[in-house]
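ugh ok fine here u go
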Amino acid sequence: MVTYPIRINPPSFCPCVHESPPRFGSQLREQFARAMRLRHLSPRTEKSYWAWVSRFVLFHGKRHPNEMGTQEITDFLSSLATERRVSASTQNQALCALIFLYREVLKIKIGPLDDLVRAKRPKTLPVVLSVREVSAVLDQLDGVNKLMATLLYGAGLRLLECARLRVKDIDFDARQVIVRSGKGGKDRISLLPDLLRRELPAHLERAHAQHRRDRATGAGHVALPLALARKYPSASREWPWQWVFPATRIYSDRATGERRRHHLHESVLQRAVRSAVANSGIPKKAGCHTLRHSFATHLLQSGTDIRTIQKLLGHSDIRTTMIYTHVAQSGPFGIQSPADRLRQGQLTVNPSTIDEESE
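structure:
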């Protein structure tokens, strides 16, 4: 049996678990990374998948994956559902990571997982804010946070899609935002709200001035997708490729030595929106993604057809978009409650009666 020494990583490295996973087998780690990058999978996916591989090895006493197979995979995934009580999507992510490890890296065939205990997928409706509530949340924000939150709601963007916007992806004349490599690696076009046609250009002018200052000091680079840096060596310093929402600090890339700016970290907006929801007094568990849900629901309520909304959201399956039909109706079944037909003032409640019953 092959074992590896454990090096502790931060608890946040491994999703949805509290123990820190081991780092082991540098050769296997390099093979795994190479396989991920050959398929152009994102660094976030690579980090998440490797976390699950590490967790899998730790679960089985640090045995090498070559020594394990279908039964060990089944036992691990079943424990996530029965002991950890993870969500169905989390369990499915762990399954995808292990399938990738065995099929694409180790080249080992995995049999059917017939005995796998599946995590239950709850049937939940998305939290949606009313137009008044969205306005109240945005009023609590200012500066870059308000611009980004307005884009989440006005264009239906995911949080990272907004953070990763580049200058060239904003088309003011066509009144559209181009989302590059969204979920599933797909591009799509969404709406550019008229509300931002004055504030966003002013923000870009400030960002452009900052970029010119960066270039004057030998910085001004950004990371480019895939092999564009080799194909267009000077593109990383050109204005069209810069982030719409750049970070406040410059860092040096280890591989190239370039002094770059990353885009604003998504956690900055997450904290700001959560604080704005709390300060506005809205009694809902709402965050950045709630603004995207509200975008879809409000379009549906205003008469936009479901296929158009599907394209704007970037959903592959229309059934994913159909969930908004359940929250866009007036009442859960699109009907009126009989209580609403009572004459005004007919329903009265004696507060003293309530107090007596509660006692």
